[in-house]
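FORM 7B: Structural annotation worksheet

SECTION A. Query
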Amino acid sequence: DSFRAPLTEAEIERRSPDALKPDEFRNLCQWGYPYVFDTFRFHMTLSGRVGPEESPRLRAAIDGLFADALRQPVPVDALTLFVESEPGAPFMVLSHHALGRGPARKTA
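SECTION B. Predicted structure
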């Protein structure tokens, strides 16, 4: 973490610090993101902000698309680290790491 640049005031404000719980605010200040360790919850961003009038329609569409996949465990066989060169830039793959055992090596 010592390689991370300190958060700017704008980055802190972007996270709506007044709406964060004390642990989340502490995480934001210490780690640069409010939802780490015990406050982390796995999520995948599938859209931009959605207003209350659009939310039910979008939820129904997402449920329909992912219902079959969510009925079964999702195997995780690799971790990929992405970087964002600047705020708002596309994420690019920095490194990809396979998990588990590699194929058995035959020796003579």
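SECTION C. Observations
Strands lie at 78-84, 91-98. The longest helix spans residues 55-70.

SECTION D. Sign-off
Analyst initials: ____
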